[in-house]
Amino acid sequence: MSETIHRAHNFNAGPAGLPLEVMQQAQAELLDYKGTGMSIMEMSHRSKEFEAMLNETEADLRELLNIPSNYKVLFLQGGASLQFSMVPMNLRPAGASADYIVTGAWSKKAVQEAQKLGPTRVAADTKASNYSTLPASLDLDPKAAYLYYCSNETIHGVEFFQEPQPPAGVELVCDASSDFMSRPLDVSKYAYLYAGAQKNIGPAGVVVGILREDLLARVPANLPVMLDYKVQVENNSLYNTPPCFAIYMVGLVMKWIKKLGGLAAIEARNRAKADLLYQTIDASGGFYRGHAAPEARSRMNVTFRLPTEELEAQFVSEAKKLNMIGLKGHRSVGGLRASIYNAVELSDVQALVEFMKEFQKKHG
Ligand SMILES: Cc1ncc(COP(=O)(O)O)c(C=O)c1O
């Protein structure tokens, strides 16, 4: 007898839904990982089974993203937020300045951390548009140690589809937490790129960092070990006990992406979901209003508003009754937000747009 599994239409912004197949595999291996008689979270991170899994996860990541051989892959802790400090600590040499593009809440937090630690310039800030646009122009310092940006602002729902162009000799650094591996990416354009796993590639607890090797020459000698990229590189991310289970889950998600056909296939899937949702918003005659300007619309976090806050609250609560979870906008901006990361199926978005149409008929 087949059992029906109760799974929500999960539109959470992160931690977010994981592919059902991945969850089922984790469940099947939970008590006995590959005949070891224990879970991957119960074994030594120095065991050959764990190291094999770590190395395979890295190899799959490298294959999917086509990461050049002069880049190191790191599995880090402290969340993406710790990278706000580690980036300037490691990559901005003493006395040098760094440029930041501020397009929403996360790049704002990053620039604030960088300012605490040394010379920092704001190359653009789209606050005037309430973080609904991409910058029209950049005020760039040709001597900056790096140019920093956030490729997808999770809260405001604004995404760059083309990386900003730094001046010659200025390195590009990116927080890709909420659109990492949602589409192909040219790693060679970056000095350093990082992403918290908990949106597109796994559970919370691990950050993937991709660092061009020569940048290690910038790392100062006296950093606390846990904040030092060089220490992490030299120890294959095993300087201390890593987030074992989270890395294992990332490994399973990599296999799932490969099975679906890689990042080009993932992109096509994500595009179809986002197109359907934005078309529904645009066809509503103003009942639903997208927050982001059309050219800046995120394919991961679709932010929108209704005519009144009361209707927004009602939308969230009626959706919940239909098993659609996570649609309330972030507390800092209000409104609604549907996060449609890799693991969200087109059928989830179809259910949402059907509900949106019904809701409009009733209340529009
Ligand atoms: C784009 C972006 N950067 C950074 C963060 C912070 O991540 P963490 O909670 O892992 O520190 C988030 C979290 O949602 C995010 O969306």
Outline the structure in words:
- The protein is of the alpha/beta class.
- The chain has nine helices and 14 strands.
- The strands form four sheets. Strands 2-10-9-8-5-3-4 form a seven-stranded mixed sheet. The protein has a three-stranded antiparallel sheet with strand order 11-12-14.
- The chain is globular and about 65 Å long.
- The model has no long low-confidence stretch (mean pLDDT 97).
- The structure holds pyridoxal-5'-phosphate.
- Pyridoxal-5'-phosphate (PLP) binds next to helix 3.
- The site of pyridoxal-5'-phosphate (PLP) has 11 residues, from helix 3.
Offer a few descriptive terms.
2 domains; binds pyridoxal-5'-phosphate; 14 strands; Aspartate Aminotransferase, domain 1; 16% strand; three-stranded antiparallel sheet; Aspartate Aminotransferase, domain 2; 364 residues; seven-stranded mixed sheet; alpha/beta
Give a quick rundown of the structure:
35% of the residues lie in helices and 16% in strands.
Order of helices and strands: EHHEHEHEEEEEEEHHHEEHEEH
Q: Any guess at the CATH architecture of the largest domain?
A: 3-Layer(aba) Sandwich
End-to-end Cα distance = 44 Å
Low-confidence segments, given as residue ranges, are: none
Structure summary, number of beta strands: 14
Tell me the radius of gyration. Answer: 21 Å
Question: According to CATH, what is the class of the largest domain?
Answer: Alpha Beta
Question: Which cofactors or ions or other ligands sit in this model?
Answer: pyridoxal-5'-phosphate
Strand content is 15-25%
